[in-house]
Amino acid sequence: MGKVSPEIDTDLNTTSKHSKSQTTLYFAIGSSLTFILYIILVLIPVGSCFRLDGSSNSLGLTFSYTSVMVQNFFELRSQDQLNCYSQFLQIWDVIFAVIYTSMYCFWILYFLENRRIFLIIPILAMIADWAENYAEILMINSYTNSNSISETLVSIGSGINSFKLILSSLTYLIIIAGISIKLKSYITKPKQFDN
What is the pTM of this model? Predict the structure, then answer.
């Protein structure tokens, strides 16, 4: 058999690369739609059972928290609301972390094609999210059983939460950098004219 000419080989590689990039883009868009629909159809309705007007509705959304903040958060809610919050952390928020991590990973793969090392940042953020959820569940159980919360547990939960939010911020920066690189590549790409 004859050898494939370098031009044809290059064309095949370019086509294969373009096809892979298109597939990644479809996954990124699909996971983004899933992210939005999950928030609207699942997180908001399920979270309504512990949500209060004029109050923080999730410890995980504050950069850090203290024992006083946690105690206040729990005292404002009934036992049924705390049970609902605990279930939310064990099930629905865990699934949400998988969805948003998938979305971030697909966008990073699309914008920064060969830099898979950056995927570690959103994956670590997801693990930190799960760990912080577990710490919150332990706090709820402690509060329910003894009406007190360990300072150490609060510090651990708060530290993990801060780490998670730092990683999330880094993820956004990576995606923004990827968008900039993609735009620059597109703008500076030489135009091809048909003969």
Answer: 0.83
